[in-house]
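Sequence design from tokenized structure. All designs in this work follow the same two-part layout: the structure record, then the generated sequence. An example of the structure record is given first.
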């Protein structure tokens, strides 16, 4: 969020406490890395610097011309010269504006090109990150890096960098012009500059502090509004009859926001008054010094025109000097911005393509988990000595208590994670030796939470097979029992499913995700309770499709429903990160172990509920 009256990282001219604590370490390595993004556009940067130099030179001319207007045209009563000088002043002012537009255009082109390059690099890098990155990193942080941080590079390139160069050039050229006209008045003007800047900074700091407090209170009020006026929040308020309490909370925060805003506005008015007063002190002193030199005749070369030009040039000097005094703030924030971006770039993907990727045939091959151990963090082991084989063409079911590691086991097969110890094999080949795209292309996964992109049904299906024909799409939908649903949609396959498929029911989303896997036609199937979001009618309709899909394919199913488990060739029972039992349904019931307990507490209850529904 943008800081109060400043950039995205705090008020202009002052570092926040957080920024002071996180000042990036400046090194040539960091500077070179930043410059590497500017290097492809060095010719355009050179053109920008040339326009700045020309603009600074042209910008001096109106002040110098004004001096001539006073001395030669007005005092000399030369109308023709007055008109000529006025035309020259107009031309120089117009030229300065045109050069400024040209500079801003080139700057915008460069900054947008650099943002384009960095966003492409960041997106590609994030796509290469393992699944663990997206489960641990906040989605908001990822979006901030992609949009706000990289977008902020534009202000660094077109703002900070060029402003530093522009201000330095303006200060140098203006000082040269001042000392050329009158070194005495130039010295007076330079002595005055601290008198203009220091009080302004002091008043400005007070105003920034008030603005920061006001922004914090605005954030608090926005948070309250978002929480209580959202769909879920407003429902909670109503169910607990807390309308009066929330109204009182809002009025209290709103009162503080109003008081701070009024205080800030009053401070702003006095700030502007002080600005005006101190800005006028410099010219008054120059007029006094110039008048003294002329009246006392200490400098016969000095005249009214030179004094007038000096005053204009001193005013031209004030703003760039003030900006240069804040250069450490701008520089620190720019480095911090790039540092945050580079922190993401420097994250090494844990799941990497092998040096010599292989593409062996996976159809008709066994799946072997060979004494596998895995943990998300070193101090919390999750899986230990997972050892089993799924014969080619068979369907194995994995059951176990919540949090026992069932999903993690199947996630090791397409290398969403890599084992810490042991190996996962397809045939005789370790999955870590596979071409990653080929491996994942050979495995179809249907999860409990079916994810659909905010597009049409057709687009979501084609994600599995880009060149699929209309006939193939309809065949997949028919197998997934969605043909009737599609016929009832006004736009058919071009029906928009909404964000995450919210325009569809849970069952429709799940069947569409299954149709997508049918279209993919993988050699290996992983089903994470693929029928969990379906009602009993939909489940019966899709169960045949799943059985057809699994026929001849090696399948691993994480199952919570007994109807699914009973169809498995073998059942693996996972508890405490290891396989405690395995066998058929009847064999496991006789052992009176974990499976028997799961059956008594979960599966039997489901059977009884379904029996009650059938009886009703």
């Amino acid at each position: 969020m943008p800081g109060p009256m400043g950039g995205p990282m705090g008020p202009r001219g002052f570092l926040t406490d957080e920024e002071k604590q996180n000042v990036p370490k400046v090194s040539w390595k960091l500077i070179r890395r930043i410059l590497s993004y500017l290097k492809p556009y060095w010719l355009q940067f050179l053109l920008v610097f040339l326009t700045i130099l020309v603009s600074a030179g042209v910008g001096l001319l109106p002040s110098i011309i004004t001096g001539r207007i006073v001395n030669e045209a007005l005092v000399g009563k030369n109308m023709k010269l007055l008109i000529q000088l006025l035309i020259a002043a107009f031309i120089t002012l117009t030229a300065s504006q045109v050069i400024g537009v040209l500079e801003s255009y080139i700057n915008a082109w460069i900054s947008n090109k650099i943002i384009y390059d960095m966003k492409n690099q960041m997106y590609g890098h994030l796509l290469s990150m393992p699944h663990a990155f997206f489960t641990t990193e906040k989605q908001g942080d990822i979006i901030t890096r992609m949009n706000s941080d990289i977008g902020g590079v534009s202000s660094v390139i077109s703002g900070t960098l060029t402003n530093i160069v522009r201000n330095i050039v303006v200060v140098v050229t203006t000082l040269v012009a001042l000392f050329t006209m009158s070194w005495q008045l130039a010295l007076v003007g330079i002595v005055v500059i601290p008198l203009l800047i220091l009080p302004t900074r002091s008043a400005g700091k007070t105003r920034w502090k008030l603005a920061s407090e006001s922004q914090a209170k605005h954030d608090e009020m926005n948070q309250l509004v978002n929480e209580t006026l959202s769909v879920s929040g407003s429902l909670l308020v109503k169910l607990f009859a807390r309308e009066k309490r929330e109204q009182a909370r809002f009025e209290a925060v709103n009162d503080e926001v109003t008081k701070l805003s009024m205080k800030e506005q009053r401070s702003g008015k006095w700030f502007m008054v002080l600005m005006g007063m101190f800005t006028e002190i410099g010219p008054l002193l120059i007029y006094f010094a110039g008048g003294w030199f002329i009246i006392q005749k200490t400098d016969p070369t000095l005249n009214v025109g030179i004094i007038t030009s000096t005053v204009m040039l001193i005013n031209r000097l004030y703003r760039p000097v003030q900006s240069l005094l804040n250069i450490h703030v701008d520089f620190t924030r720019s480095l911090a911005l790039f540092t945050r971006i580079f922190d993401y770039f420097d994250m090494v993907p844990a799941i990497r393509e092998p040096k010599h990727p292989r593409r062996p045939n996976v159809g008709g091959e066994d799946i072997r988990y060979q004494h596998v151990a895995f943990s998300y963090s070193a101090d919390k082991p999750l899986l230990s000595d997972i050892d089993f084989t799924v014969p080619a063409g068979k369907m194995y079911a994995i059951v176990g208590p919540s949090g026992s590691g069932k999903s993690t086991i199947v996630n090791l097969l397409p290398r969403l994670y890599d084992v810490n110890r042991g190996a996962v094999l397809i045939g005789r080949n370790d999955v870590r030796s596979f071409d990653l795209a080929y491996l994942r292309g050979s495995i179809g996964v249907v999860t409990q939470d079916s994810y659909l992109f905010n597009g049409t049904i057709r687009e979501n299906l084609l994600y599995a097979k880009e060149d699929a024909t209309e006939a193939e799409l309809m065949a997949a939908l028919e197998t997934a029992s969605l043909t009737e649903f599609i016929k009832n949609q006004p736009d058919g396959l071009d029906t928009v499913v909404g964000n995450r498929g919210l325009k569809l029911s849970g069952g429709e989303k799940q069947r569409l995700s299954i149709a997508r896997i049918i279209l993919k036609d993988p050699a290996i199937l992983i089903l994470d309770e693929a029928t969990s979001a379906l009602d009993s009618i939909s489940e019966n309709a899709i169960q045949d499709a799943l059985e057809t899909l699994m026929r001849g394919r090696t399948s691993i199913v994480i199952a919570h429903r007994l109807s699914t488990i009973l169809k498995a060739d073998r059942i693996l029972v996972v508890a405490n990160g290891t396989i405690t039992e395995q066998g058929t349904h009847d064999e496991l019931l006789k052992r009176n172990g974990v499976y028997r307990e799961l059956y008594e507490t979960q599966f039997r209850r489901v059977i009884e509920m379904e029996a009650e529904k059938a009886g009703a």
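Confidence is low (pLDDT under 50) at residues 1-11. We note this feature because it recurs in several other targets discussed in the main text.
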